Amino acid sequence: MMMLNEDEKKYKLINYNFKLVILVIAAMIIGSVIIVSVEPAKQSKQILGVCACIVGMIVVSLIDYHFICKYYMVLYFINIFMLALILLIGVGSDTHGAARWFVISDSLTIQPSEFSKIILIICTAVFIDKHYETLNSLKTLFMLALFLAFPVSLIAAEPDLSTSLCIFATLFIIVFIAGLSLKIIGIAILILIPCLGGFFWYIKQENLPQFLHDYQINRIMGFIYGSEYGSSTDQQDNSVMAIGSGQLYGKGINNSTMATVKDTKLVSEQQTDFIFSAVGEELGFIGSVIIIAILLLIVLQCIRIARHAGDKKGLYIASGIASLICLQTFINIGVATAILPNTGLPLPFISYGLSSLVSMCAGIGLVLNINLQKKKY
Hints:
Distance between the termini: 27 Å
Strand order of the largest sheet: 1-2
C-alpha cells in the first residue's frame, strides 16, 4: 500500500535505505543463530518470525507515515484498551506474578507493552507537532504529561517498571529534540536529585508501605549493596562469568567440547533478557563487539534519516526509534555485564521474543518510509 499526497509523490527505489535493511536483517540472523544455539526447540518459530518480520518491515516502509500519524488517536486508544485488558486477563511467565502476555496458543503469546513503545513514539511526535509553538508552556507540558502518563502507568502496573522507564526516557528525548527549554530541564534535575535520594531512603524502610514489589526492591538494593541482599545478583554474576569465559574468540556456536553456562542453566531464560551472556560466551569479545557495532550502525542510520526528514513528525519519529534502540541496547548489555540493576528488557533484533521483534521491525519500517520522503536538496 502506498499513500500519495496532493503532489502525487511517488517513492523511488534509489531513495530506499538498503543499508539499514541489511543491518537489521544481519542483526536478526545473528540473533537467531544464538537463540537456536541456546534453545534448539525455538528454531522453527524463530525462523518463521524473522521471515514474517522482514516482510512486515518492507510493507510498513511503503505506507506513508503521514497516513499512520493521521490515526494516532485510534492507535492511542487501542493501546490503552490492550494495556488495560492485560491487567485483567494477562498471564506471567515468571515467579513474580507479572501479567504481561496474552496467550493465543501454546506456542504464541503477545506482549502489548512492546507495541506501546512504537505507538507512543508516534503519538508523542504528532502531539508535539500540533503544539510545537507552545511546547515550553506549562499548559502544553501538563497536557503532554497527562496524555502519556495513563498508558505508561498501565505498563508499570503489570508490573513492568523497566519497560515503563525505557519508554519514559525515549519520549523525554523526543521532547528534548523538539526544543524543550534548558531552563525547564535544569529545574527538573534540581527537583529529581533530592527525590532520587529520598526514593533510595524510602525503599530501605521496612516499616513503611512500599509501592514497589519485593523483588524489585531486592534487585535495586542488591545492585548497590551486593550479596547483603541475598541471591538477587546471582543471575548477573553468572552472566558476567559466561561473558568472561568466552575470552577473545568465544567457545563457538553449539560447542560440545567445552562446558558452557547454557549447559548448566546458571542463567535462566538466556535466550531473552540475558542473551548477551550467550553472545559473549559463544562468540567472545570479537563477536560481542561486532553485534554492538551492528546495533550502533542501525542507530546512526536512524539518526541520519531523522536529520534529513521532510517534516518535524518524521524527525521526531526517527529520533524516537533511534533512542529506543540505543536505550534498550545499553540497558540490556548493562544488565548482562552487571553495570546496571537486574531488569528485563530484550536486546533489539537479537533477543528471542516475537512481540519485540515485530515492534522493532515496524519501527524500522516507519524510519524507512521517512527516508523515502526526505528533504530534497
